[in-house]
Design a protein that fits this description.
The chain is of the alpha/beta class. Helices cover about 45% and strands about 20% of the residues. This is Glycosyl hydrolases family 18.
Length: about 325
């Protein structure tokens, strides 16, 4: 136990040194796991002040969306904002307030690095630019657009890039986020998981997005079914038992009305989902997005809710 504690201490010191080297405050690096409970936050609409959300809810981490291609194999926020601009300032503010971040690469819209980088080594280099820019402890690879997801070549490129990135950054946590059916990953998701095993890509957490299923239904029950399906696929692929597979699983829900008419994740649903996540010790519990975590339409959730209701639920998740 003492040896483990010493390893943790050394890892924290190394993370703090890295943060100092890139000009970001190291004081919050030790205590916060940016993977576990980190709602998505994006800068192009809605409630974009992370420190206001932190103060109101107690949440400590955010998944920042999205790092994209600038048209080449070069990462920029939303494909246009430099790594040294307003997003770096936002990360500094989050860390100054005692939090941390996990940048998300990809999403549905925009030009993806997985497609524009023509080799695994080039893609790993693009990831590394972001890792180095912010002294990161974790990255999220949101693989959902058909150009990346429904493409054998790009899937393999991403997984090989993960392998290279983990070799260079052994303490970095890598999350892969994918869409899902109500019973777990579809054929493309299963292929991605199986290829990770075949290639030896050490993905730490597999996370599904359990929404946009239909025009309604019990979203708590459908979410649990989807994550159980993910767990079962991880068991089959990696030979894990239920507990281990759940501890490598995660979910990214959506608050309020989803993209599908009639489908709604209520506050009560999300509370139930957190109970499920807690009972199985899921490695990741999040949602899209704190920007939408307010009542009514427009930039908000489309439902009647208290401000930050979903973010508060995430803030209470301890794994």
């Amino acid at each position: 136990m003492k040896s483990m504690r010493r390893l943790v201490t050394l890892a924290v010191a190394a993370g703090a040194a890295m943060a100092t080297a890139v000009g970001l405050a190291p004081q919050a690096m030790a205590a916060v796991d940016p993977v576990l409970a980190s709602p998505y936050l994006y800068q192009w609409g809605g409630q974009t002040s992370p420190t206001a959300a932190m103060s109101a809810t107690g949440v400590k981490a955010f998944t920042l969306a999205f790092v994209l291609s600038d048209g080449t194999c070069n990462p920029k926020w939303d494909g246009s904002r430099s790594l040294t601009g307003s997003d770096k300032t936002m990360i500094q503010n989050i860390r100054n307030a005692g939090g941390d971040v996990i940048p998300s690469f990809g999403g549905w819209s925009g030009t993806k690095l997985g497609s524009k980088c023509t080799s695994a080594s080039a893609l790993a280099g693009a990831y590394q630019k972001v890792i180095d820019a912010y002294g990161l402890k974790a990255i999220d690879l949101d693989i959902e657009n058909t150009d990346e997801f429904q493409n054998n070549t790009v899937q393999d490129r991403i997984l090989n890039a993960v392998k290279l990135t983990k070799q260079k950054n052994p303490n970095l946590k890598v999350v892969i986020t994918i869409g899902t059916t109500t019973t777990g990953p579809d054929s493309w998701g299963k292929r991605l998981i199986n290829q990770a095993k075949a290639i030896g890509a050490p993905v730490d957490v597999w996370s599904v997005m359990p929404f946009d299923f239909s025009s309604g239904g019990d979203m708590a029950a459908l979410t649990k079914s989807a994550v159980d399906g993910l767990k079962n696929q991880l068991k089959t692929t990696f030979g894990w038992n239920d507990d281990t597979a759940y501890r490598h699983s995660g979910l990214s829900s959506m608050n309020g009305k989803t993209d599908n008419a009639g489908e709604t994740v209520t506050v009560a649903n999300f509370n139930s989902i957190r109970g499920y996540a807690t009972s199985h010790h899921l490695a990741r519990f999040t949602f899209w997005a704190t920007n939408r975590d307010c009542s009514g339409g427009g930039e908000c959730s489309g439902i009647s809710q208290d401000k930050y209701a979903f973010t508060k639920i995430v803030a209470g998740y301890a794994g």
